[in-house]
Amino acid sequence: MLNKEYIDKIKELKSKTNAIILAHYYVNPEIQEIADFLGDSLALSQQAKKTDADTILFCGVHFMAETAKILNPTKKVILPDIRTGCTLADLSKVEDIEKWKNSFNNPFLISYINCSTKLKAISDVICTSSNAEKIVKSIPKDKTILFATDKNLGSYLSKKLDVKMHVWKDYCRVHNTFSEEHIKELINEHPNADIAAHPECPEHILNYAKYIGSTTGIINYINKSERKEFIILTEPGIKYQLEKNSTDKQYFFVKNECGQNNICINMKKNTIEKIIEALENLSPEITIEEELRLKALKPLELMLELS
Ligand code: 13P
Ligand code: SF4
Fold it and tell me: Residue ranges of the chain with pLDDT lower than 50?
């Protein structure tokens, strides 16, 4: 996998810059291997808040690094490739959502963490896929609840919790495009397999799942299960941790509607070479204008308090 020369170089640069490497499970295995901390969006933001490192190198997508910067204004937050956007966060335009919010009486806007800093700044609270249920349940009953950005997560929560919510229309291009045909084929081939899904999938796909949860939730569920075969509806990057945890289980990742492996190409833009370059130059750096950061900090801090 990763040669010793690279590992030593990263270690040396990390100690020189007092840096910590935070990574999401969707990045390539060699990066998961050198990360100091791996997690879902909630755990990554909690870790970003409590680290005493001077530099946070974020191997994930842009909104994750921005979240770390909102929580840590005095630290340097660097992203190995500044073009690692999230299709969902990039789709949701703050101007449109602000207009939508203002059209309601007594609105309370919950925004999924997969969104821009500008959108966080006009939100009342932020949520991730692992704390969303808790957050929705905490909203005062007299409020008109609005949910942005992910329509699938919003609809899933509204139905599961039986809470009336107005849901914005955007979606993740990875999770919204799983092939139902391929799920059926896999069920036919592996009738004893358990099915786990991320709540960013649409309802007709979630209907097949026995377990629905965040990336960490899916990994923990599978680790604890007695079953030997699993059909999985999220990005296949999590396979590396699953295989590390148990070698006697089999994982089948569902393809997209074009018959391809359903990968998040932005997550894969993080590479070892770019990590070394970023640590050498302490760049590309995430910067956020202070007035905007303070506005975005409020709903994020409320989320961490409620989590
Ligand atoms: P998690 O918070 O579950 O890791 O999800 C992040 C994400 O972007 C899923 O597509
Ligand atoms: Fe964004 Fe989808 Fe990639 Fe997650 S999988 S980071 S929601 S584009």
Answer: none
Q: CA–CA separation, 77 vs 73, rounded Å?
A: 9
CATH number where 216 lies:
3.40.50.10800
Number of domains in the chain: 3
C-alpha distances out from residue 58 to 47, 196, 238, Å:
11, 27, 17
Closest-approaching ligand to the CA atom of 92 = 2
Give a yes or no: residue 259 inside a domain: no
Q: How far is the CA of 85 from the centre of ligand 2 (A)?
A: 8
Q: Is 7 helix (H, G, I), strand (E, B) or coil?
A: helix
- Ligand 2: does its nearest atom lie under 6 Å from the Cβ of 86? yes
Compute and round to an integer the Cα radius of gyration of the chain: 19
User: What does the pLDDT read at residue 244?
Assistant: 92
Write the CA distances from 36 to 7, 19, 21, 260, integer angstroms. 13, 10, 5, 31
Residue 63 structural domain:
4-84+267-288
